[in-house]
Write a structure and sequence with these properties.
There is one protein chain. This protein is globular. The chain folds into three domains: 187 residues, no CATH class; 144 residues, Glucose Oxidase, domain 1 (3-Layer(bba) Sandwich); 84 residues, Immunoglobulin-like (Sandwich), CATH 2.60.40. It is an alpha/beta fold.
Amino acid sequence: MRVLMKAGVLVLALASIAAAVPAQAATIQIVNIDGAGEGFNDPTPAAPIGGNPGTTIGAQRLNVFQLAADTWGAVLPGGIAIRVRAKFDPITVPACTATSGVLGGASPSGQYRDFPGAPTANTWYVVAEANQLFGADLDALTDDISITFNSDVDNAACLGASNWYYGYDSNEGIHQDLLPVVLHELGHGLGFTAQVIFPGGMFPGGATPFPTAFSRFLFDNTLALRWDQMTDGQRVTSSTNTGNLVWVGPAVTAMVPGLQSKQPRLTVTAPAPAAGNYVGGQASFGTPLSSPGVTAAVVLAADGMVGGMGGTVNDACEPLTNAAAIAGNIALVDRGLCTFADKALRVQAAGAVGVIVVNNAAGAAPALGGTDINVTIPVISVSQADGNVLKANLAGLTATITTHPTQLNGADAAGRMRMFAPNPYQSGSSISHWDVVASPNLLMEPALTADLLPVVDLARHLLRDVGWYTGTTITGVEPRPNVSVRLRSSPNPFGTSTAVHFQMAQAGAAELDVYTVDGRHLRRLVTGNLSAGSHSVSWNGLDDNGRRAPAGVYMFRLRTDSFTASGRTVRLD
């Protein structure tokens, strides 16, 4: 990654042309640097897909990039165009295989400090932000962000059959959805990046280092210090202090309660040796966890697989041999060879009222990825160690799948978002991402998941903390996915009308609204009490004033007393 530090005399020489930061939305320009016949210029014919009207692979790639740029631009202030130097090329280091590969990467082209308009002295700001704060382009000859995506993903040798998906509607199936990945990488280029030099833990600047705007909001709960208050060695230690490195910016912290769901909890009441509260892992499917939750006896699921193929007899990946015992109870299953949703569906079909998935490796209770609207019971995971305690006390085992009364997923006890700080340190991922325990999943986690929506969620507010909105205010409210359930609509994309499908775990008050991708409220579809069970609500593409919404991407948000769920759709001309 090329880091260009610029400060002092060069910036001060430009002070005479500085201007006040305008309040209008930012303009993000994609600068196509691909050669003829490749990357964004690939002429391979392609049918329009998922709202993307492009008729070649190259055009579809460029359309996705521009939509991502417009999505970010709509929520950022500034009158100075942000130029993104972009290309699709094979990424061969590390080599792409049938099961692994690098999707892409982005970085700011430089950083500036101590320019007129800088919110904090002696602090590095990425160039895209510095330009907006300064009111002029500090380096008109250099593009602000460099971004490269792996064109080999569309080849069978790279990630197997999982090619890039160029639609806007999240119907990627087995493929890699390009839109959220581009949004993610643009976030890094716009300032969601620590820019601290590892393995040494040094700030940039060579002989005269200075903290970055990002690092000033990193706080270690163990050391009780911000990163700009630490020595290089303390930053190295903090970078692997899993669960204790948090973001202390006020804009992000204010948004956490409305965005992150409460931490999953498994409460065991009997027998005495197993009684207590267990920290659970969140599932991205199934009925949203709630309080007081679901209470029942716990029964270990048994299936017909006995060794030989690496399976276990308790992973519920084959037909159950004790289905009758599962009915009316919570099923305890091992993590195994099939998907988490498959396990849940199999025990649900046997009559289970909930599922506990036991991890098959040491460590914390894992997040359970996947999507399946047919799973209608609560699902939670526990660590391998906690699972072993449950298995050793099956006689009379009774538990409740519920949530912690106050603790939020991805946050510390004070409600501050945790940063990704694994041990050992992961180059390119550590520090410059949210912790993977966040739920619902966030755009700026190190691993993107299938349930992400094309919104910039907390990343937008982190940029506010580091100074992007100095002299301006955030207007509008971006729709925020709040739990592991995503609303589904069909048809999607649609022309005249579409139906939104969702389930209510229990009867109660509900509101269903339609928003534009930049957070503007468009239409209220439901307000009032709904019964428990499945619902379908039609939207005819009109706003509250009866005007036809233009072609584009739209967000649904369902809000009840106990959870909020989001989804998206694409309207065609």
